[in-house]
Amino acid sequence: MIKNITESTEYLKEKGFDKPEIGIILGTGLGQLIDAIDIQVKASYNHIPNFPTATVEFHKGKLIYGTLKGKKVVVMQGRFHVYEGYSLQDVTFPVRIMEKLGITTLLVSNAAGAINLNFKKGELMLIDDHINLQGSSPLAFKGVAELGTRFTDMSAPYNAEINAKFVAIAKANNIKLHKGVYASVVGPQLETRAEYRMLRTIGADAVGMSTVPEIIVANHLGLKAAAVSVLTDECDPDNLKPVNIDDIITMAAKAEPHMITLFKELIKTL
């Protein structure tokens, strides 16, 4: 892996990816943030040595370098998921590349289903903690200790200072921002009624299919990390209705302006 990381990093440095400070994973609800970035360089995933390729039709596939609110940023326009057939090491490979390029902070967005019945679709949730239900760890491979501490502490995986800034920005801009626990599952199928009850019982406020692997690796690398979910559907097992993926994407688009405000105003302060 070290050889692959070095090859990918050198390729991007030669392309002009010059010491970014902040890495951003443009998950659901944050796609239009790209319009606010002064883009200097783009690299398609399929041109970067050793990089996975995004296969989900509504996820792009480019790594972008530029400035946003005066900060150098490197942005993943399109992320990878275990449900696409990738390993957890594949899913998190770009985080390792961004760290080698120079980032010290990783910001992530995603779409999630609301398990907490006090949360409504179209609202946002700041992730305060998570439950990894993906069946393994992105750190579970031979040689991981050469890249960081094998037994990575996860007592506070989401940076408290950044989260406090998100809360303050939401309040100042009249944005409803819940705080809660995100459970990450493999997918791509959605959950059964019994699974939603189980998730609620173990303390999850929302459920999705991403983010946790990237956050684990960010902590492994000593990065500050934070993540926000767009709540795209309500997961009440006693009143469960079939979910349409187009409805989820529509709900995410509705919440996008608030998500973009949070991220832009936060980056100003970092």
Fold topology:
Elements: H1 2-15, E1 22-25, E2 38-44, E3 62-68, E4 71-77, H2 88-101, E5 105-114, E6 124-132, H3 160-172, E7 177-184, H4 193-201, E8 206-208, H5 212-220, E9 224-234, H6 245-269
Parallel strand pairs: 1-4, 1-5, 5-9, 6-7, 7-8
Antiparallel strand pairs: 2-3, 3-4, 5-8, 6-9
Helix pairs in contact: 1-2, 2-5, 3-6
Keywords: Glycosyltransferase, Transferase
Pathway: Purine metabolism; purine nucleoside salvage
Function: The purine nucleoside phosphorylases catalyze the phosphorolytic breakdown of the N-glycosidic bond in the beta-(deoxy)ribonucleoside molecules, with the formation of the corresponding free purine bases and pentose-1-phosphate.
Concise synopsis of the structure shown:
It comes from Winogradskyella aurantia. The chain has helices at residues 2-15, 88-101, 160-172, 193-201, 212-220, 245-269, and strands at 22-25, 38-44, 62-68, 71-77, 105-114, 124-132, 177-184, 206-208, 224-234.
Please characterize this protein's 3D structure.
The chain is an alpha/beta fold and 270 residues long. It has one domain: 3-Layer(aba) Sandwich (Rossmann fold). The protein has 6 helices and 9 strands; from the N terminus they run αββββαββαβαβαβα. It has a 5-stranded mixed barrel. The longest helix has 25 residues. The two termini are 31 Å apart. The model has no long low-confidence stretch (mean pLDDT 93). One of its GO terms (biological process) is nucleoside metabolic process. It is an enzyme of class 2 (transferase). This is Purine nucleoside phosphorylase. Pathway: Purine metabolism; purine nucleoside salvage. InterPro entries: Nucleoside_phosphorylase_d, Nucleoside_phosphorylase_sf, Pur_Nuc_Pase_Ino/Guo-sp, Purine_phosphorylase.
